[in-house]
Each structure stands twice: as structure tokens, then as C-alpha cells.
User: Fold this.
Amino acid sequence: MEHIDWANLGFGYMKTDYNVRCTFKNGEWGELEVHDDEYLQLHMAATCLHYGQEVFEGLKAFRGKDGKVRIFRMDENAKRMQNSCEGILMKQLPSSIFEEAVKKAVKLNERFIPPYGSGATLYIRPFMFGISPQLGVRPASEYLFIVLVAPVGPYFKGGFATTPFVIMRQYDRSAPLGTGKYKVGGNYAASLVAGEHAHKLGYSNIFYLDAKEKKYIDECGAANFFGIKNNTYVTPESTSILPSITNKSLMVLAEDMGLKVERRHVPVEELATFEEVGACGTAAVISPIERIDDYDTGISYTFSKDGKPGPVSDKLYHKLVAIQCGDEPDTHGWVTVLD
Ligand SMILES: *Cc1c(COP(=O)(O)O)cnc(C)c1O
Assistant:
């Protein structure tokens, strides 16, 4: 195989050897199919193209020091995808098929799993969309589920570093009773303008408040928020947040470390009281926040002056990464070791 410079890979698409597919047709899921073609033949009236019937997931496989390959909490991704499907009236895929397809896609592309210690990982993207042709607005009767994988580089090239975020009340990611709690492509389309505006102003992303009252913290770009103070891990409770599996795992680890965990409304002014804050998600695990500027009021909340994460974020990050790659025992049963 051509040489891959693992340490300098970005987060992007790269062609690998195979993708794994499964089709729902005539009222049932078919057999798993292995394809080497990156392209699809799709009907031009497929519901995914017109009415946004698309859901996706994101998870990772890690190569351990022992050479074994580990996949992190894929049962949670399978469940969440079912929940997303329910949210936009798509057919639910049984978890057993989801997990079989993920394992198969990883095994078949084993040569693309980055070596232990490179900081790079194999990103796994399961996704599903409506394929039956329809012009009327109603759910599709046929669906295609695909798992593609691509090696991705370390999120922080120069080491674990902080970045600034910005609050801008002119944009919402999702509505309180809308689709924010589902992992659907449409939410991402709806956040592109806001994200680009924030990037142009030099921020890593937008820091969203709840859409209704603009009083409480929702999400940091496409990542969950957490704050640390008084030995407590605080994360927002909201109907428009996507339930992050990373956040769910960090809450457990925080408790293991003796921190209190609180899931509740977090008023924006409370930002002034946190010792450390961060964004969390599969891509970066933890992306520590340097500063949050409120674009509308001019208030600025600063958390890190030296570009380094706080001690609790640092500890949580290293603990989770150690479990994911097998350096530390998997006491919570989160890891699937491939045979
Ligand atoms: C995927 C996603 C997250 C992070 O979830 P993880 O399971 O931790 O990767 C957070 N917010 C949004 C909007 C997302 O789409």
C-alpha cells in the first residue's frame, strides 16, 4: 500500500477498500453486501434528495499497543441511530445488523487502521437514507444503510490545545421541539451559515444558546458542552441537544474520579463561574475552550490564558483515550475487541 503519513492526516474523506451496505425493501432488511464502489446509483426522486430523510452516526476504531483493534460503544451508536430514525420517520435498523456492518467494514479495511501511538484513528461513518422515488411529502418505503470508514489524523496536531468560541444570538441550530436531539444531516445544513460566520471571525465555532429564550447553554458547534467547578461536572439538559456518547462516557468517568455530576439548565451567565469548560464529541473527545465571547453583549468569558486545558479536562481526556485504545482496563464494558 502507498505510504500514509498518519500524523499529518486531517479529518477528511479518503478512499478505502470496501464499504458495507444493507437495503430495506419490500418491508424487510436484506443481507449485508460488501462493495468496493464509492458511488451509488440513486433514483433522482429519492426522498433523501428532496425531503432530507437522512441520519448518520460517527464512531472510531483504535489500534492498541497489543495490536488488537477496539471499537468504542457501538451499541450506543446503534441505539441512537434508531432514535434518529424514529425522529424523522425512517425504518429502524436492528442493532445486530448495525454492529455486524460496522465490524465488517473495519475488518475489511484493516490496512487503513492507523498504528498505535500515531494519534490517528479509523473513523467509522454509518448512515442511512430514503431511496424510494416519491414527490409527495411522506416517508420513503425503501432505505439504504451504508458504513464507510476513513483514517483520520489526530484532532490536535500540536497537542491538546484550547480554542475560542462565540455566542451569536442571530443563529439557531435547532428548535426546542425540533430535530436537534436527532443526528440528522438537516441539522448540519442548518448550521453551516452560522459556523462559517464564526470561522470568519476567527472562532472555532458558534456557542449556541437555547432557541426559545436565549438564556441557557445548548451546544458548542456540533459538540456537547461541559463545565467544571467546585469538583462538579456540569452539562446542560435541553430538548434540542444531541445526546453525545462522549459526554455520557465523561459523566461516568467524572463520577469514577470523585466528581459530582449535574445535568441541568445552565444559564449563560453561569459561564463566569466555571474553572474549566470544554466541548466534547467523538472527533476530538474533549476540545478545551480558551474563551467564549458574547458577540451581542461584548462580555468575554476567559478560561485559559496559556492555551492549555485545565487539570480536570486533561485528566478526563487521557482517561477516556486510554480506555479507547486499551491502555487501561475497560471496566464499564464500553469496548468491543475485534477478533
Ligand atoms: C455527533 C454530535 C455530537 C457528539 O456526539 P458523540 O456521540 O460524542 O460523537 C454532539 N452534538 C451534535 C450536534 C452531534 O451531531
Summary: The radius of gyration is 20 Å. The mean pLDDT is 96.
